[in-house]
Queue: 2 jobs
Job 1
Amino acid sequence: MTQLSILESRMLAILQSDASISMSELARQTNSSSATCWRRLREMEEAGVVSAPVRLVDPAKVGRGMDAFCQVRMKAQDADARSAFQRAMDLEPAIVEVYSISGDWDYLLHIVVKDIPDLENILMTRIHELDCVATASTMFVLRRVKHTTRIPV
């Protein structure tokens, strides 16, 4: 775990709200200098605390207004099966998150699709066809109640 300074915590809180902010504005908002903010940001990037800035896309505005979560149970837990599954997940752009989880299921997938036929296609061609998958259960999202990319710092 990286121990963050007060300045770094303030920088991260600001950058998580607006990654396009200028270094001079970041410095102004953190009561620091541009050079200090730039150096600290580079240090946090090198340490892996932050990654490249991105623009968040509203899925509904690009024709991907349906979220689904799919729980997957594997037939086996050996390294080859896990590797094959993870490679298959990497090949499908609509599967935006994959978590290895504890409990009755082995993986939890977040899938962002156009509609039910799109989801069915992904389930049948990317998940159920895999030899390493024993079973899967899918839940449709009715409405997003809370969604954020901000991590408390």
Job 2
Amino acid sequence: MSCSIEDFLSRYFAMSLAEAEWVASVEPVPEEKRWLVRLVGEEKDRITIWFTLRDRHLFHETGFMPHPVENAIAVYEYLLRLNHKQVGAYFSLGQDGGVFLVGAIAREDINEAVVDRVIGTVYETVENHFRVAMRLGFPAVFRK
């Protein structure tokens, strides 16, 4: 890669993703080496991925769902079982009990195909599992 990783990512997020119809927006935060990518979803209206360039990795995180109000153990068990099959993005709990998808790409592995794969994995995971997890964690909302 002849340009810096930061320059590559800025160009990639600005040009490649900004032109895609399934991308709602791309917002760079250059002083923090961060990029916010919002995707248009069906099961979840907006899927927001934060990419943060760190010393050794490009870290990514996506808010998947809030802390479940019911059946928390069943929700967490469902998601942990999915982690066993996941590649590139894994379920994690935030400090407030909310669920996130997280992962990291080693700096030396960062390229367009790898970042595309992460975005695809996050999108597919949210689209395939958001509704099930929400029904488990918020059954009263879905009974109405």
